[in-house]
Amino acid sequence: MNIKLLFLALFFVFTLEANERIISLSPSVTEIIYALKKGDSLVATSEFSLYPPEAKELKLIGGYSNPNLEKIISLCPTLVIGQDFNQATLEKLERFGIKTLMVKLQQINDIKNSILKIAYELHVDSKPIVDEIQSAINSVAKGKESHKVMIVFGLYEDLSRGIYIAGGGIFYDDIIKLCGKTNAYASSDTNQPSLSYENVIALNPDQIIILHSNASNSGVNRQRALSAWHSLPTNASKNRRITVIDESYIHIPSNRVALIIKRICEEINR
After folding, report:
1. 2 pLDDT exceeds 60?
2. What is the pLDDT of the chain when averaged over all its residues?
3. Between β-strands 194-195 and 163-164, what pairing exists: parallel, antiparallel or unpaired?
4. Locate the Fe/B12 periplasmic-binding domain: which residues (predicted)?
5. Interacting residues of 229 by C-beta distance below 8 A, sequence separation 6+
6. Residue-by-residue DSSP string for 157-214
7. Domain limits of the chain?
8. How many CB atoms lie within 10 A of CB 37?
9. Whose C-alpha in 17, 127, 150, 254 is 20 to 30 A from the C-alpha of 80?
């Protein structure tokens, strides 16, 4: 290849990269793309993509469970990245000749591997981010006391509705084990089972950690909700080991899982 053709080829590659138009189908993927310093290439994302702050300025393509196909196509993306639950949407987009990438963000290893996968596709270095997650894993302090932990999704005053908790095969279960504890829900059949309060009593967790989001449920009365939990006859209530974590990142399986590991293990071993 002569020097002129080489120059033209390089110019074409650089032009393509400069014109990247990426659409993210979930808040987790959005966070990872920004962490990889490719946020300038994002043209749209799903609802509830709130971090970093500039993500809130992106166009929205609907909820992460029901993205608007027509809107995605109208934005002429060069790449659409979604999670495994977006498979049907990604397959439809591929029929229109749109390049897609599907990632899985269930467990901690999935998150690390997906960051590597996205970074490879975007031609950027993922090492600092993956190293940060590994550092959080390596630095976890395991408490001497062994007990059963239940992680609950959402703080509600009425416990007669379904209570969603962290089961097996999910990164919260990984974190409980990293902290040297046992998940109160032993079955690995379901990663987010719905329990009745009678089921909770039967499992009798020694500690309950409730993951709350002010953004999605700001109207709950925390005192009344905690009173409802403390009224259940469990070891967690008896030992006053029912707490709420409401950091904004706590529900998002992204590069910020490093923060989630530190925060939950800090609470477990308090």
Report:
1. no
2. 91
3. antiparallel
4. 21-270
5. 159, 208, 210, 236, 237, 242
6. S-TTS-EEB--SSSHHHHHHHHTT-EES----S-SS-EE-HHHHHHH--SEEEEE--T
7. 3-137, 143-268
8. 13
9. 127
Asked if residues 207 and 151 have their Cβ atoms less than 8 Å apart, the reply is no
The DSSP symbol for 7 reads H
User: What are the φ/ψ torsions at residue 207 (nearest 5 degrees)?
Assistant: -145, 140
Q: Which two tokens stand for residue 268?
A: 């477990």
Q: Are 107 and 171 in contact (CB under 8 A)?
A: yes
- For 168, half-sphere exposure in the C-beta direction (CA atoms, 13 angstrom radius) is 7
Q: Are 29 and 64 in contact (CB under 8 A)?
A: no
This prediction has a pTM of 0.89
Cβ contact 269:143 at 8 Å = yes
Structure token digits, residue 115: 């960051």
Residue 223 has pLDDT above 60, yes or no: yes
Q: Read off the pLDDT of each residue in 158-170 and give the average, rounded to a whole number.
A: 93
Class of domain 3-137: alpha beta
Tally Cβ neighbours within 10 Å of residue 218.
8
Tokens standing for residue 49: 């993509």
What is the Rg, in whole angstroms, of the alpha carbon atoms belonging to the chain? 21
Phi, psi of 34 (to 5 degrees): -65, -40
Query: How crowded is residue 51: how many other Cβ atoms within 10 Å of its Cβ?
Result: 18
d(CA 193, CA 202): 15
Level-2 CATH architecture, domain 143-268:
3-Layer(aba) Sandwich (3.40)
